[in-house]
Specification:
76% of the residues lie in helices and 0% in strands. By secondary structure, the protein is mostly helical.
């Protein structure tokens, strides 16, 4: 894989965008990682390569955002996410590459559509055990197979219009716990082959670089331009994967 320039390009973009999004803007666009890498390798292999790198990103981001997370939200979300992870592990072998591509693409396009439809909803929502529990389960499930837990989590948190630092910190703590919990079933399912782990190790230095860039942008720049570019990339990637999934 590391001799394939298309893979290196897609993996570099995936890791940097994920890290910048995680540290700067709450991680909602971290779901771009597997779709980008799935253009050159299988979604399952892309997810396995990304998980150790995500865990490394989480440690750096957790340090930067320490003390700012909303534990009111996390007490609702984390138990539900554990259930979602369990469902994802049990259903892992029932989805083939085409189904995974279709799922990733639909989640990507659905997330963008949701953000567009919610742009005029100015009244903040309150924390809810029912809504938080539902989206926590969905986030755990989609995070397990394709690391796409950010959009379902954002569907729940964004309408509450939290302070951007509280929002980012809450998502960082949430996905630190979720990603660590995913390590054990990934071992059980045989996802951590020597090839996947060695590829993760060689790509890992990109993670702290992306986290540093994300923190820089979080404190100094508007996120408008960043999101415009990433939403465009996410739309194109999501559309391509939906097409591939349906064609398969």
């Amino acid at each position: 894989m590391l001799s394939d320039p298309l893979f290196l390009l897609s993996a570099t973009l995936a890791i940097l965008i994920t890290a910048i999004s995680k540290a700067g803007f709450g991680g909602g666009l971290g779901m771009v990682a597997v779709p980008l890498m799935a253009l050159t390798i299988s979604p399952g292999q892309a997810a396995a390569i990304m998980l150790p790198i995500l865990c490394l990103m989480d440690l750096f981001a957790l340090w930067h955002f320490r003390g700012h997370a909303s534990w009111q939200q996390l007490r609702i979300l984390l138990p539900a996410a554990v259930l979602g992870i369990g469902l994802g592990a049990l259903g892992f072998h029932y989805l083939n590459d085409e189904q995974l591509k279709l799922m990733i693409g639909l989640i990507a396009l659905g997330f963008i559509s949701h953000r567009f439809l919610q742009r005029h909803n100015l009244k903040p929502q309150q924390a809810s055990v029912i809504r938080g529990g539902f989206w926590g389960i969905v986030s755990g499930f989609t995070s397990f197979g394709i690391h796409a837990g950010g959009p379902p989590l954002s569907v729940y948190l964004l309408p509450q219009k939290l302070d951007k630092t509280v929002f980012a910190a809450t998502t960082v703590v949430f996905f630190t716990c979720v990603n660590l919990l995913k390590v054990f079933p990934y071992f059980w399912l045989g996802q951590f082959s020597s090839l996947n782990l060695s590829t993760s190790l060689l790509l890992a230095p990109l993670a702290p670089l992306g986290i540093w860039l994300g923190r820089y942008l979080h404190t100094r720049l508007s996120d408008r331009g960043f999101f415009v570019i990433c939403y465009g990339l996410l739309t194109l990637t999501g559309g391509k994967l939906v097409w591939d999934g349906l064609a398969g």
